[in-house]
Amino acid sequence: MQILKGLFQVGGDINGITFDQLGALWNDGNSYVLKTDQGLILFDCGCGDTLEQIFDNMRYWDLSPDDITHCILTHPHYDHAGAGHILSARGVKFISIGETADAVSSGDDRCCGYLYHKIFKPFRVDQLVTDGETLHLAGIDFQVMHLPGHSMGCTAYLFNWDGKRVVVSGDVIGTLLVGDFGWDGSIDFDKKIYTQSLLKFSKVDTDIMLPGHGLIYFHKPRFRVEEALNSALMQWR
Ligand SMILES: [Zn+2]
């Protein structure tokens, strides 16, 4: 699915762009591709069992999987990073914040394999980023925003594309029909830290939000973050 010129959603099982198991709606987080003149940048890579579907979706848009140079991870959960070991073996370079890199390199319960009755196969992240850093990649500036809580590795990436301010937000907020926060079953879930992250994220204006699951928001995504913050403040105190 093309979102903007050169920006695509290529994975995600809630709307059936990819499909893992019957009845599964959360096995495959959303994954996105940015087409740059220096190669393809993938955001998150799904659970691994759907990688060929992601590749097929890319080929439909004339995007060769062989042209993926980098994969940027929003957090280490299985539905977002499970395919990492396969892509890494294909030579794709991984980028993430330290907490995510640490989790995927161990493949431990911070990666939530238990939730899917699957084993998370560990892999190495090649380049670490830090909160507040601007990542320069393929001629694009990505602002790194660490937003822990859903998992300690949660990170959003903000960049300008085709005249829009875009954020890839992972599971910091769920985006179904209203803004809501992400799943709270992670081993390293933390309500207090999550609420602080929502407060921080609620100050940020963007034009388009590409979430880890569900609907892409094309109008004032900040409103959805404020809704999630409101829910957290009411339910988690
Ligand atoms: Zn998650």
State the gist of this model.
The chain is built from 7 helices and 14 strands. It has 237 residues and is of the alpha/beta class.
Topology:
Layout: E1 2-4, E2 7-11, E3 31-36, E4 39-43, H1 51-60, E5 68-72, H2 78-81, H3 84-89, E6 93-97, H4 98-106, H5 113-116, E7 127-129, E8 134-137, E9 140-146, E10 155-161, E11 164-170, E12 173-175, E13 179-181, H6 191-201, E14 208-211, H7 221-235
Parallel strand pairs: 4-5, 5-6, 6-7, 11-14
Antiparallel strand pairs: 1-2, 2-3, 3-4, 8-9, 9-10, 10-11, 12-13
Helix pairs in contact: 6-7
Bound molecules: zinc ion.
Family: Belongs to the metallo-beta-lactamase superfamily. Class-B beta-lactamase family.
Domain Metallo-beta-lactamase: 28-213
Protein name: Metallo-beta-lactamase domain-containing protein
